[in-house]
Write a structure and sequence with these properties.
about 140 residues, alpha+beta, Chemotaxis protein chec, 6-stranded antiparallel beta sheet, two-stranded antiparallel sheet, Transcriptional regulator MraZ, transcription regulation, transcription cis-regulatory region binding, DNA-binding, cytoplasm
């Protein structure tokens, strides 16, 4: 499970150093793709296969499902990190997420999310109060 918040920097070639605690899990390969709120999602390859299989179960008669799959899968790039845990985020995905140098990588359970650090800070500030206010409604019985 991916947890926590990390603040690596992209290097001049658009490469991201994976946080050390996640390198073994991603060593065999990963998929980086568009996420929500202009973030990027990073899945270990085996987890991405599960997500893609779930998408295949969606009805192709649903325009919303087709649109979602097109955007999600067309932006996907499979990568293998080097021995230092670096991999290149393709230019089109860096542009989509507005990534320049300072990024925030958050653990989101089965995936990592990569955000421009300023965008993440603004998002977190805007959503922290609603997080506190709606925990019971969003996930009943959690607390």
């Amino acid at each position: 499970m991916f947890l926590g918040t990390h603040t690596p920097r992209l290097d001049d070639k658009g490469r991201l150093f994976l946080p050390a605690k996640y390198r073994d899990r991603m060593a065999a390969g990963l998929v980086v793709t568009r996420g929500q709120e202009r973030s990027l999602f990073i899945y270990p390859m085996d987890e991405f296969v599960k997500v893609a299989e779930q998408m295949r179960q969606a009805p192709t008669t649903s325009r919303a499902a087709r649109d979602y799959m097109r955007v999600f899968l067309s932006g996907a790039s499979d990568e293998i990190p080097d021995k230092q845990g670096r991999f290149t985020i393709p230019a089109n995905l860096r542009q989509y997420a507005g990534l320049d140098r300072d990024v925030t990588v958050i653990g989101a359970g089965s995936r990592l999310e990569v955000w421009d650090s300023a965008v993440w800070d603004a998002y977190l500030e805007a959503t922290e109060q609603s997080f506190a206010d709606t925990a019971e409604e969003v996930i009943p019985g959690l607390f």
